[in-house]
């Protein structure tokens, strides 16, 4: 384990152990799902209930960069707050300097570099998060998924965290392009509960944000989707109540 104290050093097998361990942490984090169609984009974030006295809606996990860009993460979620803060400063500066809107490619460039540099320098810890960034640009919706090594790719839909394997299987069955926002929200909630293991996982609340053609971003209230939660909350990993 001493090699972990030495920074980003290759092992004899050509691996960087810091990245491997960070990725394991990210892959076991709380599940996040992003779905999009030509009508909009939906972000769903699992928020475990650690204490019944805590008001979960007071702790937003979907974080803002600009009115058109929001992020969520699985893993060490406080790492996202640092990444988000750094990225916000850099992108707002870029926007003011260039007098242009922030494009998906500019977002990917700056985000990838910020995450990657923590894999490359001594005295830096690799971020233990996978990140989903969602952006509305020129009335189109983009989903960008970033892993611990800084690798960033655009997707039609994305799932990260401990339930991502089952979630991706369910997402692949969907015809997303023509879905309206209500259908996207319902399917996202259904998939979150279907990928939930009641034996190993804690009960959870859901945080939901949506991008629409008319508006940049709206954070839904719990009462907006309470009926859907009641409908699917007893689903098992086998899809049965």
Automatic annotation (TrEMBL):
Keywords: Proteasome. Signal peptide: none annotated. One of its GO terms (cellular component) is proteasome core complex. Gene3D superfamilies: Glutamine Phosphoribosylpyrophosphate, subunit 1, domain 1. GO terms for biological process: proteolysis involved in protein catabolic process. PANTHER family: PROTEASOME SUBUNIT ALPHA/BETA. This is Proteasome subunit alpha type-3. It comes from Nosema bombycis (strain CQ1 / CVCC 102059).
